[in-house]
Amino acid sequence: QVQLVESGGGLVQAGGSLRLSCAASGSIFGIRAMAWYRQAPGKQRELVAGITSGGSTNYADSVKGRFTISRDNARNMVYLQMNSLKPENTAAYYCKLAPFWGQGTQVTVSS
User: Fold this and answer.
1) Measured by CB atoms within 10 angstroms of the end CB, which terminus of the chain is less buried, N or C?
2) Beta strands in the chain, from DSSP E residues, in sequence order
């Protein structure tokens, strides 16, 4: 069983930054791809960024150049650095290590 615990969400003004963290338990972390998703009220959950076990990354077009996903395999951690935040980035952000999900952390960006 894998457990994922997100942290780092909060309230920030537009243009600000937040760094989300996801702590993963289980020995399979280092060989699996990880991803961050988000879900805004009334909308479907969507992929924000993904990272392979080797460190290759992909991003949603809307966050390219502003968000950075990274991982620390030794610590079983994955991060999402979010810069230049916009009100439309407000959502619950979830860490995923398929098929497992974290409980989510809320990000609220005020205008």
Assistant:
1) N
2) 4-7, 10-13, 18-24, 34-39, 46-51, 57-59, 67-72, 77-82, 91-97, 100-101, 105-110
